[in-house]
Write a structure and sequence with these properties.
about 475 residues; alpha+beta; 6-stranded mixed sheet; 5-stranded antiparallel sheet; 9 helices; globular
């Protein structure tokens, strides 16, 4: 009886039970196993999803595996060739364009603020069956000016995007906040991560910031930190990364990223002191000031990541696949003020940084890591030419950066499995790809010491169609896949 069992069928049953990482390793056992996996539509679909840094969506089971694999390949080809499937176009009168105060793109939804309202557009994705949808919503941060136009308080409204009224999970609609600083001109940066909402308040006259984190469902204050905070992001549901800058007497700037655990108990007498509240600190190379003509000596920074990877999956739309939220790219850019067209950007992978944070927690690393003491966390440091309004959009493990003065757009992919998969193929979409796999060292005439790059990436270049702006309006065009 045993002799009648087909060995291929046994191997096939075993392969179907493996997790994706084990399945990838099995491809390297022999050419026989490799061909067996590649000849299976189901296994090939799982491998290509993993290589593309994607996971199945809620509507994936409504189509056959063969149809899903075909759709996935079309989607990846469109990304590499920048073959746009739909164009979203809208025009604002020039007077409205000048009042455009803020914009954000998250979860496939473009939000922009003008005058006293926010407009939301669910951008379409024809290949994934996602249709366009529009909403309108009032501002959610209310600035209340007190006596003598100086004393300020804020009301933060927890509203539902779909209805514009109080969010059903919020205990109350409004969180009231009275900042320690005084001023008339304020700047805000809002981030939401699962049950937490964080707001960075900055008085433009002073430059110092307050970062406050609440549980938006219960209104419980979780953390409050003040200092020279240039930017911040959530690393996990409970860890926040702050970008800090500090000027030295020798006209050089020290900058660092500080990791804060918002669930850690506050020390009452120093609850706002970053030195007392930080979990660990990663120091970056010193920046030399005065390098650019017209530089007034100030240095600031930006931090970008894919915030969708820190949000629960959307349940209001159906899609066959989406970006894997297990990991994401982080882009950190120090820049002089005024901003110049050339920026130095540090790219690193979130899971690599979190592994170093875990080493600190376990006592394997010191709490304050000087530059050179954490270089084993792979980085890629690049000089990029960017528009004066610096913009770097992170999508999963990809960084999308427009060129400085042309219609070109560059896609840098730092996903190791995507790079490896791409190098093994010789197809139309791989001909337009450049690779940088080598370590390099340079001071960029910007830092006080050489910096080393080790993180591999592949780069795709595409051309955007030209836009014809009229003198009396501003044109916005979004290309969708």
């Amino acid at each position: 009886m045993l002799g009648s069992i087909n060995p291929t069928e046994i191997i096939w049953i075993i392969l179907q039970e493996l997790d994706i990482r084990s399945l990838i390793k099995c491809r390297e056992i022999s050419r026989y196993i490799l061909n067996l996996i590649d000849s299976s539509v189901l296994l090939n679909y799982e491998v290509e999803l993993y290589a593309a840094n994607l996971v199945e969506g809620p509507s994936s089971l409504s189509a056959t595996t063969s149809a899903r694999l075909k759709l996935l390949r079309e989607h990846q080809k469109a990304w590499k060739l920048m073959n746009w499937k739909e164009k979203v176009h809208f025009t604002l009168p020039r007077e409205d364009y000048t009042s455009l105060s803020a914009w954000e793109f998250r979860g496939g939804v473009l939000a922009f603020g003008e005058q006293r309202q926010l407009c939301f557009i669910q951008l379409p994705s024809p290949l994934r069956g996602i249709a366009r949808k529009d909403w309108d919503l009032l501002v959610i941060i209310e600035h209340v000016v007190g006596q003598h136009d100086v004393q300020t308080s804020f009301r933060i409204h927890m509203l539902s995007l779909a209805t514009g009224i109080q969010h059903p999970l919020a205990k109350k609609q409004t969180i009231a906040y009275l900042p320690n600083q005084l001023g008339t001109m304020w700047w805000y940066v809002v981030r939401i991560c699962y049950d937490h909402v964080a707001v960075m308040f900055q008085v433009l006259e002073e430059g110092t910031c307050e970062l406050v984190v609440w549980n938006w469902k219960t209104r419980e204050l979780k953390k409050r930190v003040s200092g020279d905070i240039g930017a911040y992001i959530f690393l996990t549901k409970t860890l926040v990364m702050l970008g800090m800058t500090e000027e030295q007497d020798n006209e050089r700037f020290i900058w660092s990223i500080e990791v804060v655990d918002i669930e850690a108990p506050n020390v009452p007498e120093c609850a706002e002191n970053i030195e007392a509240t930080r979990l660990c600190s990663f120091q970056f190379p010193q920046i030399q000031s005065g390098l650019d003509e017209g530089d007034d000596g100030d240095v600031d920074l930006t931090i970008y990541t894919d915030y969708d990877t820190l949000s629960p999956p959307r349940k209001d739309i159906s899609y066959p696949f989406c970006t894997d939220n297990e990991d994401a790219l982080i882009a950190i850019t120090p820049f002089s003020i005024p901003i110049t067209p050339t920026s130095i950007t540090f790219f690193l992978i979130r899971s690599h940084l979190l592994a170093a944070v875990q080493d600190v927690v376990e006592g394997k690393r010191s709490k304050i890591l000087q530059w050179g003491k954490w270089e084993d966390v792979e980085l890629r440091i690049m000089r990029v030419h960017t528009p004066m309004e610096w913009f770097c959009y992170i999508h999963g493990m990809k960084a999308i950066i427009p060129s400085y003065n042309t219609q070109e757009v560059f896609i840098y992919d730092f996903c190791p499995r995507s790079i490896k998969r791409n190098q093994l193929r010789d197809t139309e979409e791989t001909m337009n790809v450049e690779y940088d796999m080598e370590a390099s060292e340079d001071d960029f005439e910007y830092f006080a010491e050489p910096v080393k790059s080790t993180l591999p990436y592949m780069k795709t270049t595409g051309i955007l169609p030209e836009m014809t702006n009229r003198a009396d309006s501003a044109e916005f065009v979004i290309y969708c896949i």
